[in-house]
Write a structure and sequence with these properties.
Elements (H helix, E strand, L loop, with lengths): L4 E6 L5 H10 L7 E6 L9 E2 L4 E10 L2 E2 L1 H7 L2 E2 L3 E9 L7 H10 L3 E10 L18 H19 L27 E2 L9 H5 L5 E4 L1 E4 L9 H5 L5 E2 L3 H13 L7 E3 L1
Parallel strand pairs: 1-2, 1-4, 3-6, 4-7, 7-8
Antiparallel strand pairs: 4-5, 8-13, 9-12, 10-11
Amino acid sequence: MDITNIKTFFFSPTGTSKKIVQAIAEGKQTSQTISHIDLTYPNHPTDISVGGNELAIIAVPVYAGRIAPLAKKRLQNISGNNSPTILVVLYGNREFEDALIELKDLVTAQAFNVVAACAFIGEHSFSSADMPISPGRPDTNDLKIATEFGAKVMQQLATTQVSQPIDVPGDTPYRDGMKNLPFTPKIDSGLCTQCGECIAACPAGAISLNVEIQILTDSCTFCCACIKACPEECISLTSTPMQEKAVWLNTNCKDQKKPQLFL
C-alpha cells in the first residue's frame, strides 16, 4: 500500500494526546508528508475527509473509561475512504476500559479502516504538585515507543495491499461515562489578573470574562486545561468529590503502567 500522506487528528486539552500522535507520525517514511489537525478548540476544522492512500492517526483522551464526549462529537466531522487508521487513547494510569473499542466503532462507522491501535499513559488531568498522578507522562520512553510503533505500522502498510481490521479490548454495551457535574474548578478572584489564558485554553468555550472570570457549569468537562494554563495558579479543584477522587487516584494508581500496542 502506497501511503503518500499522514493526517493526525487529536483532541488534547492538556497536550498529552498531541505528544503521542505526533510521535507516532514521526515513524513515517521520508517521502511522506504530515498534516496535524487539532480538534481541541471551539474553532476547530470541520468537514474533513481522508483519502484512501492517506494514513489517519486519531488520538483522544479517556474520561471515566470512555472517549471524552467533546472529542467524540468533534470526530464525527471527519470521514475516511477506507483509509488505514491508527487509533490512540490516552489515560491517566487507571484504566482505559471501553474507550478504545468505542473509538474504533465510531471511526469504522465513518469509513476508516483501523489497522493498529494503542493505549498510552498521560499525566492525569487531576494531577497537581501536591497530588501527583502519573506526572511527566508521556515521558521520553513513551515517545520512543510511540515513534517505533508508528514506524512498524508504516512498514507493514508498505508491504501489503490490503490491511485487515484489528480487534481491540473493551466491552459493548459500553460502561457508563462521565456525568455532568454540578460544580466547576474554583477561581481565586484575589489572585486572578484576568489575563484570559484560561479562556483560550478551554476546549468547551465554557469560560468567559464578565467583570470576573466565570466558568459555565453546564459546559465544563473537567479537563482541567484551565488549571494547567493559569500563570497565577489561581484555579483549582476544591469540590469535595473532585478532591476525594484525586486522593484516590494518587493512592491507588502509583504503579506506572506501560503502553499497550495492538497491531
